[in-house]
Amino acid sequence: MMLLRKGALLLLVLLAMYLGAFLLLTRVEVGGVPLIFRTADHYYWKGGDTWQRFDEYDPARRHDVVVMGSSHAYRGYDPALFAAHGLDMFNLGSSAQTAMNTRYLAEAYLHAGNTGLLVLEVSKSFLEDEGLESTADLVQNNTSGHAARRMAFALRDPRGVNMLVLRWMMQGHAPQYLSENYAGRGYCRYDERNTAQPLSGRSGSFDPLPEQVAQLEALIAWAQEQGIPLVLVTHPIPASSVDRARHIAFVDFMGELLRERGVKHIDMGLDHDLDDHLHFADHSHLNQAGVEIFVPRLIERLRKEGMLPPVK
Amino acid sequence: MLFNSIEFAVFFPLVALLYFLLPHRFRWVLLLVASYLFYMAWRAEYALLLLFSTVLDFTAARAIHRTTEQSVRKRWLLLSIGMNLGMLAGFKYFNFANDTLRGLFGMAGMGYTIPDHEMLLPIGISFYTFQTMSYTIDVYRGHLEPTRHMGRFALFVSFFPQLVAGPVERAPSLLPQFVQRMSFDQQRIIEGLKRMLWGFVKKIVIADRIAPVVDRVYADPTGYDGFSILLIVVLFSIQIYCDFSGYCDIAIGAARVLGFRLMENFRTPQLATSIADFWSRWHISMSSWFRDYIYIPLGGNRVTTQRWYFNLMVVFFLSGLWHGAGWTFVIYGLLNGLYMVLAPITGGVWRRFNAGVGLYRVPWFHQALMITGTFALVTFSRIFFRAQDMDQVGSVLGHLWHFTPGMAGMQRLIDIFSAPVLAITLTLAFASLFLDHRLEAVVRGERRFRSAAGPYLFHGSLLLLLLLFGNFGEVAFIYFQF
């Protein structure tokens, strides 16, 4: 009994201290920034393109195409270019989104009635990262509390709980900042040209996390059950930054995973003629000039594959 | 299974609950099964090595005890030591020896075609082989009667709290505890839980927050200035202490919850006033193993001065090699051996110097200098311990002297980790360096609180630190690799 009594008392003290500390850290500001954001990298500010994206997204409205995935998605798929081809598109990509994050977002926001085609922009980190960065961003900035809780608990450690408490404490607050690159419909436009040095330190191996692979499998199963057509795409990568062996290992892995599930992976990572300097913003992302070449090619490819309705 | 994983957070309470629910006679079975499950969570097939080591030493010890014929006893002892060291050599040292031979053959212009093996080093192999060897040696020396209970012996080898990174227990201390009836003593359980909490704080809040900063700089030391490198070298010293002593605190605490008492492995090594003092406070179970089974059999210090120095160098060479198969570890060991040898050689000079400048008249300042000097020497040797290879050692040492005025040199670190996050990490790290022994005394109950609310506020604060500042990325313990 003593053990239980002392344990319960300690938990009560801890709860009071925990909430008190959070209240203090979110209310006391230094240099205009609440202290909480200075304590660790996994506390995200409320606002930015993720907040703007989910604030704008209306699940009641139907889109011909919804794109999801990491920054490659929200910086690489311009809705205006889809519109020019007669397609209504919304971009639900967000920073470092992993299979786990995409799954919980898709299940919270999408259904056959509002999504004509789900395009998953996938890169190696989609299956290799545990999802901390993306979860921190999405727990703070997406509008679905259910999705936020699922992502936070999927991390399986107290940081997820802290993120949820922060989300709760920041509710009702106006966004702390807005992204200047946000161009609407989930898309962020970047015009700068790549001046980064080619990346070194290639590992040559692709090491997906089993948990993320299971999440992708669950996402595919869910989309098929819902009747949402799904395609996985990898957008172009600058030739000077690509680790070919790793990329091939990734594509082979995806091919094997998707073949038996009847899902296609369109890999345009190496299959392009884009210029590293003119068409990329950095060692990984397309710039607007690159997007304007890539997107029409992708649409043509999707139409050829019969995944998009013919030109109206 | 890592202590800092969600799996252990489920595993341990479940094992503890079942342990106290079961009748005494079945408890060893539960602990044995739990220990093997704990080990197999990493790689199931490597549990066979654990089993092999157990059967080998159980059989060898029984055989040694059964006969009085010295040659037979010796043969069994050599078989046990040979097989254990052979296993260790095969998994841990084969590639190192192979690389060295390849290099030598290459220098001589000769071909060398024996390939490296690609087997993973079994976690904890350096710990459990040394633990079982000490058992057989103790039986051979007549210091210990071998157990007849193979199950309890298997538990002695595999007891999960200390299986993968120590403390390296001795049979006379741990084996009898498996026979004792452990009661559900709430006071003891609270004591164990507090110790575990303290270990988790040291590991998850301090060591694991330091780890990414140290890793980043060691990955490319050439990109940082001398001040950053100096900071990182010191931070690694704090990281390894908090990592390893944190592990031991969790191990000792977990064992305490179940009723067992493991040996203390650290005694505030950051307060050591000499290298000899440091090694009597750091990784005590392994230092005493080397003392009892290598240093003293070699003659210890009861030999000629030259032979004593030789004995010290041999012990520290082996200690370095025990840590890892690489020249950096060998140099780490030899460097510490050299410190030990130089201490008596230069002792007279230091004493005269201290007396001459009047240091003995200000004892607290003298002691502070001794502590700082010892910490600096140990920290320097750890550059070799942490570096992946000698090239990295060269880069770290080469850039240690490139100082940039002002904060400019720190800018790259600040850009990567942000100034506030770096400041919190540094605050926690240096606070642990100076406050650790005081806080540990509170955790161990050696310091009392004045008010009834004190323990709740103190342990609540530790939990709060863990929840708010912990890096829960399941970073493996440094000593797991040994």
Number of helices of chain B: 18
Number of helices of chain A: 12
For the largest beta-sheet of chain B, the strand count, sense and barrel status come to: none
Q: What is the oligomeric state here?
A: heterodimer
What percent strand of chain B?
A: under 5%
Roughly how many Å apart are the termini of chain B? 16 Å
In which order are the strands of the major sheet of chain A placed? 4-3-5-8-9
Q: What does the average pLDDT of chain B come to?
A: 90
Give the percentage of residues in beta strands of chain A: 5-15%
* Rg measurement of chain A, Å: 21 Å
Largest sheet of chain A: 5 strands, parallel
**Total number of strands of chain A:** 9
Q: H/E order of the elements of chain B?
A: HHHHHHHHHHHHHHHHHH
Regions of chain B with pLDDT < 50 over 5+ consecutive residues?
none
Shape of chain A: globular
Most extensive chain-chain interface: A-B, 23 and 25 residues
The assigned structural class of chain B equals mainly alpha
Mean pLDDT of chain A: 91
Give me a quick take on this structure.
The complex is a heterodimer of chains A (about 300) and B (about 475). Chain A has helices at about 1-25, 50-55, 70-75, 80-85, 100-110, 125-130, 130-140, 145-155, 160-170, 210-225, 245-260, 290-305; strands spanning about 30, 35, 65-70, 90, 115-120, 180-185, 185-190, 230-235, 265. Chain A is of the alpha/beta class.
Structure description:
The complex is a heterodimer of chains A (312) and B (482). Chain A has 312 residues and is an alpha/beta fold. Chain A contains twelve helices and nine strands. Chain A has helices at 2-27, 48-56, 71-76, 79-84, 99-109, 125-128, 132-141, 145-154, 158-170, 210-226, 244-259, 288-304; strands at 29-30, 33-34, 63-69, 89-91, 115-121, 182-184, 187-188, 230-234, 264-267. Chain A has a five-stranded parallel sheet. Chain A has a two-stranded antiparallel ribbon with strand order 1-2. In chain A, α7 (132-141) runs parallel beside α9 (158-170). The N and C termini of chain A lie far apart (74 Å). With 482 residues, chain B is mostly helical. Chain B is globular and about 70 Å long. The mean pLDDT of chain B is 90.
